[in-house]
Amino acid sequence: MAKDYYAALGLEKTAGADQIKKAYRKLAMKFHPDKNPDDKKAEERFKEITEAYAVLSDAEKKQQYDQYGDAAFHQRFSQEDIFRNADLGDIFREFGFGGDDVFGQIFGNRGGHQGCGGHQRPRPRKGQDYLMQITIPFRQAVLGGERRVDLDRNGQNEQLQVRIPAGIEPGQKLRISGKGGAGQNGGPSGDLMLEINITKHPHFRREESDLYTTVKIPFTGACLGTSVEVKTLEDAKRIKIKPGTQNGSKVRLKGVGVPGRSGQQAGDLYAIIEVEVPKELSDEQTELLENLKSLDL
Fold it and tell me: What is the 3 state secondary structure string of 185-241?
């Protein structure tokens, strides 16, 4: 179910940090469990506004929520991520209410709170992993290469050079270590996960490690045999067409498909033959074909 954190706090998306805090304080005063004992509706409302505040009061989480929207945000952030290091105790204590103890009872002590009386040192925690979708050309997906990625991280723009391995597939993810959210309490930064989308190619299609392309030949070439040039993703190769080749038949170019990885063999390129039938004929061509027709050809 979609969540609108701004609406939960009664705010517009242009609200600043002070407005967010003020709105939460007002609603928390109204719906805090200490003020509404045994009121499940108030408790659920308190959970809703507290989750909203945990996200919108954190600059990194807010930037991710604003950029990607609710659905994509919740694919990137678990409930534990949302409440991690959310410090609400000070606000509660201003009201004279219980602090971290109430937070822990309702939210299961998410976010690394230690309780009011524990005084334990917060444990180091790894930062959130970020997920970003990038689209690469068909040729680069097959052959591999370098790709520049612009990353908005911690309020700053970074340019990363990412190596795209040959043969990467749609939906596959690349992990870039240390380029996610900042770690907490001395913990390491999270990772950046790049989810790969691939553009279509006007002349090639891919099935697993094999490539397919269409090659046109004249009618006479199909009957008598010929040779034709086949374009690959890197160059071109000339192949022989046997006499009597049928429309739709395939010629295999071994090892010219997707490069092999981890000791696997490279895929193949299949040239699918398309026999071209002339739309218009000269008188001489018509006469010759009529003679062939008389021979049942």
Answer: CCCCCCCEEEEEEECCCCCCEEECCEEEEEEEEEHHHHHHCEEEEEECCCCEEEEEE
Q: What span, in angstroms and rounded, lies between the C-alpha atoms of 7 and 48? A: 10
End-to-end CA distance of the chain: 67
Mapping DSSP to helix (H, G, I), strand (E, B) and coil, where does residue 20 land? helix
Instruction: Give the span between the Cα atoms of 17 and 31, in whole angstroms.
Output: 21
Q: Which of 163, 182, 198 is the last residue of a domain?
A: 198
> What CATH number did the domain enclosing 46 receive?
1.10.287.110
- What kind and span of H or E run contains 54? helix 40-56
Q: How many C-beta neighbours within 10 Å does residue 248 have?
A: 10
- Using a 10 angstrom Cβ sphere, with 0-12 exposed, 13-18 middle and 19 or more buried, the burial of residue 267 is buried
* Structural domains in the chain (count): 3
User: Virtual CA dihedral for 7, 14, 53, 5, nearest 10 degrees?
Assistant: 30
Q: Which residue range is the domain that position 214 belongs to? A: 205-294
- 3-class secondary-structure state, position 247: coil
Q: 119 in a domain, yes or no?
A: no
Is residue 228 pLDDT above 60, yes or no?
yes
Same structural domain, 213 and 183:
no
Token pair for 176 = 């870039």
Report whether 231 contacts 213 (CB < 8 A): yes
pLDDT in tens, 85-107: 666 655 655 555 544 444 555 55
Bridge partner residues of 160 (DSSP): 149
d(CA 223, CA 29): 87
**pTM summary value:** 0.55
- Domain assignment present for residue 241? The answer is yes
Question: Is 116 part of any domain?
Answer: no
The answer to whether 221 and 227 have CB atoms below 8 angstroms apart is no
